[in-house]
Amino acid sequence: MRTLTCVDLFAGMGGTSLGASQAGLKVLLSANHWPVAVATHRLNHPDVDHVTQDLQQADFYTWPDFDVLLASPACQGHSRARGKEQPRHDATRSTAWAVVSAAEAKRPSYLVVENVADFTRWQLYPQWRWCLEALGYALTEQVLNAADFGVPQERRRLFIVGVHKDAGPALDIPQGTASHVAASTILDDAATNWSAVNRPGRSAATLRRIENGRRRFGGRFLAPFFGSGSGTTGRSLDRPLGTVTTKDRYCLVDGDRMRMLNAGEYRRAMGFPTTYRMPCVHKLAVRLLGNAVVPAVMKHICEQLKAHHAGLSLRVAG
């Protein structure tokens, strides 16, 4: 059976490409509008062709043929954490139409779209889905948690899997069954960026969160530096980390001192190998990591695509 080929749209840091490669797919091309993301992807995937472009303007008819379309359109316009609705959210939501354009031009056998779960609440989601179905794709929706795949992070993301009518029946992706990995496994014992919890200028909200965490977890725990949810109670180091975002969110509290997590710790929380290269600028590295797809989850999905394709190939051969 031949190797399945794929392209990676909105490729970002390269978690999708890494997971697909680990599953045995051949990544032909990756594309993103942000030069920093493309440069980072190229460092880690030098054998892949790279395109720096607004994908809503791409002429997909000129692209090479491929079997699998992998895409992670911008999620900021869909997330409930986006804050007050703004005009730019319409612009980010509209990036999803590039998936339809690519599918129409190339008609791959499979497509996988990753986004936040609220993507399905988008006002135009029914029309977006109808367009893909009109092109011959049977779609299934799965919300998968990275922690269920052995990654030390609670990260729930929607994965929409499409199978073209010529490639066989629709495909449901099974949930992960791995034991959850504690956040303590990602910590860098050599980190030196500590400061006093009670230093002058520390916000009252931060101090309240830390005090709540002490009452619940003792002297050593994680606390979001901003935000809601576990931001009011802290987080045990025995649990996976909460969702990695595009901004520094988590701090480690150890007695009377605290520090923000570093990019290397977030890289481990996302399941990237320690050899995976990132920008030297911390802010850029965190932004890329927060937008990335967890490689282990994408590997799992691509393995299901391979099995589906092998089953079809066997039926055709038989």
Output mean pLDDT: 91
The name of the CATH superfamily of the largest domain reads: Vaccinia Virus protein VP39
Helical amount among residues, as a percent range?
25-40%
In sequence order, what are the helices and strands, one letter per element? EHEHEEHHEHEEEHEEEHHH
Which CATH architecture of the largest domain would you pick? Answer: 3-Layer(aba) Sandwich
- Which consecutive residue ranges, at least 5 long each, have pLDDT under 50? none
**How many strands appear in the DSSP assignment?**
11
Rough outline: elongated
CATH topology of the largest domain: Rossmann fold
Distance between the termini: 14 Å
The biggest beta sheet reads: 7 strands, mixed
In the sheet with the most strands, the strands line up as 3-2-1-4-5-7-6
The number of helical segments is 9
Radius of gyration: 21 Å
Strand content: 15-25%
Brief rundown of the structure:
The protein has 318 residues and is of the alpha/beta class.
